[in-house]
Specification:
Helix content is about 45%, strand content about 10%. The protein is of the alpha/beta class. Among the domains are: about 90 residues, Death Domain, Fas (Orthogonal Bundle); about 180 residues, Rossmann fold, CATH 3.40.50.300; about 250 residues, Ribonuclease Inhibitor (Leucine-rich repeat, LRR (right-handed beta-alpha superhelix), Alpha-Beta Horseshoe), CATH 3.80.10. Strands 9-10-11-12-13-14-15-16-17-18-19-20-21-22-23 form a 15-stranded parallel sheet. A five-stranded parallel sheet has the order 2-3-4-1-5. Strands 6-8-7 form a three-stranded antiparallel sheet. Helix 11 packs across helix 12, helix 32 crosses helix 34 and helix 34 runs parallel beside helix 36. The chain is globular, with a radius of gyration of 40 Å. It is found in: Cytoplasm. Belongs to the NLRP family.
Length: about 1050
C-alpha cells in the first residue's frame, strides 16, 4: 500500500453517480487502463464488493493520486460518461489554480523557474499511451496537478469581461419597475426547466439547443438575463467556461462580418484569445435573445451556411450556421423567440428542447397584487376585478401588465373612485393608466403625438425598440420622450445603447391605436404613407393582420377609443380631440362589413372589437347584418359574445361550441346536489356573461334555431341554459344538442323542453345518453308536446329503455319523423320499434334506421310493417348489411297495394345485381315507391340493365333514382339513355362518382338535348372537352329546366336523399 494522498476531485461523488451496472463496468475497465498494475495490488474480492464510496476509499488508499485521477477520467470516457469526465477535469483545474495562487511569487515582476506546462488533453494521451513517467513524491504530484491550470486559469482579460457582464446584467435584472420578487420567482421556476441550469438534474446527454418561446413580455429575455447573471456569479462555471449574449435586436443592424467579429465586437480585450476560446466550443454557452427580431427574410438563415468563423457573411447566415451546427457544433445554445419565428427555428435547430414561457401564473399574479397594494382587501378586490375580464387577466400573465393594472387601480382607490368600470375593457384600463400619469390639462399634445407615431411605426415594422435614427426620421427629440421615460411608459434599452422600448407590446399597440384615433393636424399626411404606416382600413384588414398579428390588438384598442366617455377623458387630460370620422371608418372597415359572411376567426375578432367599444349604437349597426352566427366560445370570448348578441336583433340561427373545458367553472363531477361547491371563482366570473348570452333565447323573437355542438357545459351553465329555453318568451323552433359533456346534461336539457309549445325539431346526439331517455319519454308523453321531428343519434340504451321509448312514441300524437341513426338496436330493440310502427295510432311518416346494425333477418319484420303501416312514407336503411336477401323481403312488403312507402334509401347495403332484379320487378308493377337510393352498392352492369328496363315500363312511378358510386361503366350509358328516352316520370338521376368516361357522358348529353322530364342530373366528368361543352350548351337551350352537377366541388358531400328525412 502506498501512502494515502488527496485526490484533486471528489471521487466519491462521481462514483455515486453511477448505477450498479455502470459501477461494475467501471471496475472492469479500471484494470485495462495504462499502468493497470496499480489496481492489481488490491484484492479482487474487495474491489468487487465495494460500493461507490468504498471504491473511492480503496483507490485513494492503495493508488497514486495522479494515476487515480487520470485513470478515472479515461474510464469515464470509455463508458461514454463524458459529463463525469468533464466534471473531474474541471475540478482538477480548480485545484491547480488554487495551488498556483498559493505558490506564486509575491511580485508579478519576479518569476520562478517552473516546469513547462502540458496541455490536459496531451497529458491524457500520454497517460493512455503509457509514456507518462511515474512519480511518487508529493511535490511531483502537486506539479502534475498544476498542469491542469493551463486551460482553467482565468486571465485578467477574462476576469474583466466577466465583471463587465456581471454589472450589466445585474443592472438589467434589478431595473424592472415595481417590486420584482414575483418576477424573480417566475424566472427561477423556468430556469429549473432548463437542463444545464438546474443543479438537481442528473448529468446526462441533453440537447445542446434550448428554445424559450412565448408571446411578448412573458419573461424570455428576463430568464436569458438571469442565466447570464448566473454565469458571471460562477453558478454555471462548472459547465461553461465562456458565455456570450447575442441580442438579435442589435445584430439586425449589423452589416456583413465574420462570426468572430459578431461575437467579440464589444470585447477587444478578448481578441488575442479568440482561437483558444472557440477551440473549446463544448465549454461555450451562446444566449441568442429575441430571434424573432432578427428581421431576416424567409430562407435567409439556411442559405450559404458556413463553418469558418473568420469568413465574412451576413449576420443571419452566421446565426443560421450556428443553429444548424455547422459553426461550433459542440456549443450550447439558448434561444428566445416569439411564436412567429418558431417555424424558421424548426428548420434550423438540431433536436432542440422547446420550453413555453407562460409568464405569471395565477398565484404569481395574486402574490404580486398583495405585495403591491400592501392592504389585502384592496389587493384582492383589484385582483378580482382584473380576473373578471378574461382578456385582461390573460394579458396579466405579463409582469409589466400586472404593474400597469396595480398602479392604475391603486391610484383610483386612493382617490375614492370605483375601479370596476376601468377593468371592463383593456382599452379603459390602459387609457386610465395613461391619463393618471399626467395632470388634467397637461400640454402634451406634441409629445403624445410623437410617441404614438413612433409606436405605430414600430408596430408596422414589427419592432418593439426605437433607435436613434427612428427618432430622427420622425422629427422627435429625446427631450420629447423624457416625461414618458420618467413614468416607465418608455424605457431605455438595457442592451442596445441609445435605444428605447415600450414597457410592453400591448401598450405599444394602445399607443398605435391612439395615433389613428387622434385628430390630425392640417399639415399631417392623413393616411400615414409618409411614415410607412397603413391607414385605418389597412390596419383592420384581414390580410394585414395575418401578415402581422401584432396589429390585431391595436385594432381592438382603436374600437375601444371610439367610446364617447373615453374620448372626453383623453381630451380633458391632453387637450387633444379625437378624429370625428373615426366611427365611420370603423363601420367601413373590412372587419365590420362582410354582409354576414364571416369565418369563425373573423367573427371572433369582430366581437372582441365591438366589445372594446362599449358603444351600443355602433354594435347594433354592425350586428344588424347577421341572421346566422356560428361561434366557438371559450372563457375569454364569452364577455364579447354576450355583449354583442344582445344587440343582434335580426339573428335567426345560432350555433355554439363551448370549448376548453379546463377554463370553464366546474369539473365533470359537479352535480346539482352539490351546488355550493361547484361555484368556483371561475364560475362566478363566467356565469353573468353566460346568463346574458342565454337571455337572447327569450328576448329575441326572431331567433328560432339554436345548435350547441362538441361542448362542455358545467351544471351551472346547463341550469341557466335550461331556464332560458323553458321560459314563456322563448320562441325557438329547432334545438340541436350534439356531443355535450358531461352526459348527464342531456337529461336536464330534455326536461327544459317538456311542454314547450314552439319547439318542433329536436336533435340529441352523443354517446352515453341512457340517463336522458326517461326524461325524453316524459317530453314525448306530455299532452302539449309539439315535436314533429326527433333525432336520437348515437345513443347507447338498454332493452328496457328502448321499450319505454317505443311506448312513448305510441302515445305521442305530434311526431312525424324519427331519426335513430347510429344506434345499435339489437333484435329486442328492433322488434319493439316494429311493434310501435304497426300500431294503428302511430303517426310516424319518416323513419331513419341508418347504421343500426340491421341484417337481412330484420327485413322480414320490416316488410310486415310496410304492409300494415298507414302513415310511413319514407324509410332510410343506409349502412346496414341487408344484402340481396333482405332486399327481396322488403320488396315483398312493398308489393302490397296497402303499402304507402314513397322513399327507400338503401345506400351502402351490400346489394348486388340480384337485389336490383327484385327491385326492378317491383318498379315495373304499380307501386307507391317513387324515390330509390342505391348509392355505393356494386350493382354491376346487370343491375343497371334491369333497373333501366324497369324505368322504360309505363307503370314505373319512380321520380328519383340515386346511383352514386355504383361502379357503372361507360357502355352501361346506352341502357341509361334508352331508359331516359322512354321514361316520363324521372326528374332526378344521380350518377356521381361513376367512371362513365367521355364516351358515356357524350351518349347521355346527346340524349338530353331532346326535351324530357329530367330536372336534375349529377355525374362525374373527367375530361370536359369542346364537344361536351357544345352539347351542354345545346342542352341548356332545349332543356332549360335541367340542372347538371358535374361534381367539381365537394363530390363527397352529404348524399341528397338524406334531405328527405328532415321536415
Amino acid at each position: 500500500m502506498v501512502s494515502s494522498t488527496q485526490v484533486n476531485f471528489n471521487l466519491q461523488a462521481l462514483l455515486e453517480q453511477l448505477s450498479q451496472d455502470e459501477l461494475s463496468k467501471f471496475k472492469s475497465l479500471l484494470r485495462t487502463v495504462s499502468l493497470g498494475n496499480e489496481v492489481q495490488k488490491i484484492p479482487q474480492k474487495e474491489v468487487d464488493e465495494a460500493d461507490g464510496k468504498q471504491l473511492a476509499e480503496i483507490l485513494i488508499s492503495h493508488c497514486h493520486s495522479y494515476w487515480t485521477e487520470l485513470a478515472t477520467i479515461q474510464v469515464f470516457e470509455k463508458m461514454h460518461r463524458v459529463d463525469l469526465s468533464e466534471r473531474a477535469k474541471d475540478e482538477l483545474r480548480e485545484a491547480a489554480l488554487k495551488s498556483f495562487n498559493k505558490h506564486k511569487p509575491l511580485s508579478l515582476g519576479i518569476t520562478r523557474k517552473e516546469r513547462q506546462p502540458v496541455d490536459v488533453e496531451e497529458m491524457l494521451e500520454r497517460f493512455k499511451a503509457g509514456t507518462l513517467e511515474c512519480t511518487e513524491t508529493e511535490e511531483d504530484v502537486t506539479v502534475l496537478t498544476e498542469v491542469f491550470k493551463v486551460k482553467g486559469e482565468k486571465s485578467d482579460n477574462e476576469d474583466r469581461y466577466r465583471l463587465i457582464l456581471k454589472t450589466k446584467f445585474r443592472e438589467m435584472w434589478q431595473s424592472w419597475p415595481g417590486d420584482s420578487k414575483e418576477v424573480h420567482v417566475m424566472a427561477e421556476r423556468y430556469r429549473m426547466l432548463i437542463p444545464f441550469s438546474n443543479p438537481r438534474v442528473l448529468p446526462g446527454p441533453f440537447s445542446h439547443t434550448v428554445v424559450l418561446h412565448s408571446p411578448a413580455g412573458l419573461g424570455k429575455t428576463t430568464l436569458a438575463n438571469k442565466l447570464m447573471l448566473d454565469w458571471t456569479e460562477d453558478d454555471l462555471i462548472q459547465k461553461f467556461k465562456y458565455a456570450f449574449y447575442l441580442s438579435c435586436r442589435e445584430l439586425s443592424r449589423l452589416g456583413p462580418c465574420s462570426f468572430a467579429q459578431m461575437v467579440f465586437r464589444d470585447w477587444p480585450e478578448l481578441q488575442d484569445d479568440i482561437p483558444h476560446i472557440l477551440a473549446q466550443a463544448h465549454k461555450i454557452l451562446f444566449v441568442i435573445d429575441g430571434f424573432d427580431e432578427l428581421g431576416a427574410p424567409p430562407g435567409a438563415l439556411i442559405q450559404d451556411i458556413c463553418g469558418d468563423w473568420e469568413q465574412q457573411k451576413p449576420v443571419p447566415v452566421l446565426l443560421g450556421s450556428l443553429l444548424k451546427r455547422k459553426m461550433l457544433p459542440k456549443a450550447t445554445l439558448l434561444v428566445t423567440t416569439r411564436p412567429r419565428a418558431l417555424r424558421d427555428l424548426r428548420f434550423l435547430a438540431e433536436q432542440p428542447i422547446y420550453i413555453r414561457v407562460e409568464g405569471f401564473l395565477e398565484e404569481d399574479r395574486r402574490a404580486y397584487f398583495l405585495r403591491h397594494f400592501g392592504d389585502e382587501d384592496q389587493a384582492m378586490r383589484a385582483f378580482e376585478l382584473m380576473r373578471s375580464n378574461a382578456a385582461l387577466f390573460q394579458l396579466g400573465s405579463a409582469p409589466a401588465v400586472c404593474w400597469i393594472v396595480c398602479t392604475t387601480l391603486k391610484l383610483q382607490m386612493e382617490k375614492g373612485e370605483d375601479p370596476a368600470p376601468t377593468c371592463l375593457t383593456s382599452t379603459g384600463l390602459f387609457l386610465r393608466f395613461l391619463c393618471s400619469q399626467f395632470p388634467q390639462g397637461a400640454q402634451l399634445r406634441g409629445a403624445l403625438r410623437a410617441l404614438s407615431l413612433l409606436a405605430a411605426q414600430g408596430l408596422w415594422a414589427q419592432m418593439s425598440v426605437l433607435h436613434g435614427e427612428d427618432l430622427e426620421s420622425a422629427g422627435v427629440q429625446e427631450s420629447d420622450l423624457r416625461l414618458f421615460l420618467d413614468r416607465d411608459i418608455l424605457r431605455q434599452d438595457g442592451v442596445a445603447k441609445g435605444c428605447y422600448s415600450f414597457i410592453h407590446l400591448s401598450f405599444q399597440q394602445f399607443l398605435t391605436a391612439l395615433f389613428y384615433a387622434l385628430e390630425k393636424e392640417e399639415e399631417e399626411d392623413r393616411d400615414g404613407h409618409a411614415w410607412d404606416i397603413g391607414d385605418v382600413q389597412k390596419l383592420l384588414s384581414r390580410e394585414e393582420r395575418l401578415k402581422n398579428p401584432d396589429l390585431i390588438q391595436a385594432g381592438r384598442f382603436l374600437f375601444g377609443l371610439a367610446n364617447e366617455k373615453r374620448v372626453k377623458e383623453l381630451e380633458a387630460t391632453f387637450g387633444w380631440r379625437m378624429s370625428p370620422e373615426i366611427k365611420q371608418e370603423l363601420l367601413r372597415c373590412d372587419v365590420s362589413r362582410k354582409n354576414g359572411h364571416f369565418t369563425a376567426a373573423d367573427l371572433r375578432e369582430l366581437l372582441c372589437c365591438l366589445y372594446e367599444s362599449q358603444e351600443d349604437e355602433l354594435v347594433k349597426e354592425v350586428m344588424a347584418q347577421f341572421k346566422e352566427i356560428s361561434l366557438h366560445l371559450n372563457a375569454v370570448d364569452i364577455a364579447p359574445s354576450s355583449f354583442c348578441f344582445k344587440h343582434c336583433q335580426n339573428l335567426q340561427k345560432m350555433s355554439l361550441q363551448v370549448i376548453k373545458k379546463e377554463t370553464l367553472p366546474e369539473n365533470v363531477a359537479a352535480s346539482e346536489s352539490n351546488a355550493e361547491s361547484e361555484r368556483s371563482q371561475d364560475d362566478q366570473h363566467m356565469l353573468p356573461f353566460w346568463t346574458d348570452l342565454c337571455s337572447i333565447f327569450g328576448s329575441n323573437k326572431d331567433l328560432i334555431v339554436v345548435e350547441i355542438n362538441n361542448s362542455f357545459l358545467s351544471a351551472s351553465l346547463v341550469r341557466i341554459l335550461c331556464e332560458q329555453i323553458a321560459s314563456d318568451t322563448c320562441r325557438l323552433w329547432r334545438v340541436v344538442f350534439k356531443n355535450i359533456f358531461p352526459a348527464d346534461a342531456y337529461r336536464n336539457l330534455c326536461l327544459a323542453l317538456r311542454g314547450h309549445k314552439t319547439v318542433t325539431h329536436l336533435t340529441l346526439q352523443g354517446p352515453d345518453q341512457k340517463d336522458m331517455l326517461p326524461a325524453l319519454c316524459e317530453v314525448l308523453r306530455h299532452p302539449e308536446c309539439n315535436l314533429r321531428y326527433l333525432g336520437l343519434v348515437s345513443c347507447s340504451a338498454t332493452t328496457q329503455q328502448w321499450a319505454d321509448l317505443s311506448l312513448a312514441l305510441e302515445a305521442n300524437r305530434s311526431l312525424m319523423c324519427v331519426n335513430l341513426s347510429d344506434n345499435e338496436l339489437l333484435d329486442e330493440g328492433a322488434k319493439l320499434l316494429y311493434t310501435t310502427l304497426r300500431h294503428p295510432k302511430c303517426f310516424l311518416q319518416r323513419l331513419s334506421l341508418e347504421n343500426c346494425h340491421l341484417t337481412e333477418a330484420n327485413c322480414k319484420d320490416l316488410a310486415a310493417v310496410l304492409v300494415v303501416s298507414r302513415e310511413l312514407t319514407h324509410l332510410c336503411l343506409a349502412k346496414n348489411s341487408l344484402k340481396d336477401t333482405g332486399v327481396k323481403f322488403l320488396c315483398e312488403g312493398l308489393s302490397y297495394p296497402e303499402c304507402k312507402l314513397q322513399a327507400l334509401v338503401l345506400w351502402n347495403c351490400d346489394i348486388t345485381s340480384d337485389g336490383c332484379c327484385s327491385l326492378a320487378k317491383l318498379l315495373q308493377e304499380k307501386s307507391s315507391l317513387s324515390c330509390l337510393d342505391l348509392g355505393l352498392n356494386h350493382i354491376g352492369v346487370t343491375g343497371v340493365k334491369v333497373l333501366c328496363e324497369a324505368l322504360s315500363k309505363p307503370l314505373c312511378n319512380l321520380r328519383c333514382l340515386w346511383l352514386w358510386g355504383c361502379s357503372i361503366p361507360p357502355f352501361s350509358c346506352e341502357d341509361l339513355c334508352s331508359a331516359l328516352s322512354c321514361n316520363q316520370s324521372l326528374i332526378t338521376l344521380d350518377l356521381g362518382q361513376n367512371p362513365l368516361g367521355s364516351s358515356g357522358v357524350k351518349m347521355l348529353f346527346k340524349t338530353l338535348t331532346r326535351p324530357g322530364t329530367l330536372q336534375t342530373l349529377r355525374l362525374k366528368i373527367d375530361d370536359f372537352n369542346d364537344e361536351l361543352h357544345k352539347l351542354l350548351e345545346e342542352i341548356e337551350e332545349n332543356n332549360p329546366q335541367l340542372i347538371i352537377d358535374t361534381e367539381k366541388h365537394d363530390p363527397w358531400k352529404k348524399r341528397p336523399s338524406s334531405h328527405d328525412f328532415m321536415i
